[in-house]
Specification:
Helices cover 83% and strands 0% of the residues. By secondary structure, the protein is mostly helical. Helix 1 runs antiparallel to helix 2 and helix 1 packs parallel to helix 4 (74-108).
Length: 109
């Protein structure tokens, strides 16, 4: 497999797995809020583990290094730099959404 293709699959795979973990966090949070057990450790530990994993799984440096960087063109490197800025905003959205869900959802339900 070519280095640039391998790098692209790794970046997109980590982004997809991060989204899956964030959706798992949302499902656990909504379920805990509906059942009224949001403050129990049985829900909090897996819920915040999913949130932490969703943030940690996002790649910090999507710009390729080494051999993959040498084979990428300048337009591809700029594309990965734009992805990096987008991922910063995704992390912020994850955390703001988590705060809104954890603090706001029990008041609604």
């Amino acid at each position: 497999m070519r280095p640039l293709r391998k790098h692209r699959l790794l970046v997109y795979g980590r982004i997809a797995s991060s989204v899956v973990m964030y959706v798992a966090f949302i499902v656990l949070d909504v379920t805990a809020a509906i059942t009224g057990q949001l403050s129990s450790n049985a829900w909090m530990i897996p819920m915040f583990a999913c949130l932490g994993l969703s943030v940690l799984l996002l790649p910090r440096r999507p710009v390729p290094r080494g051999e993959a960087r040498e084979t990428a063109g300048q337009d591809r490197l700029e594309y990965y730099a734009r992805i990096r800025k987008w991922l910063i905003w995704v992390r912020i959205a994850y955390l703001v959404g988590a705060i809104a869900l954890v603090l706001g959802l029990p008041r609604v339900v």
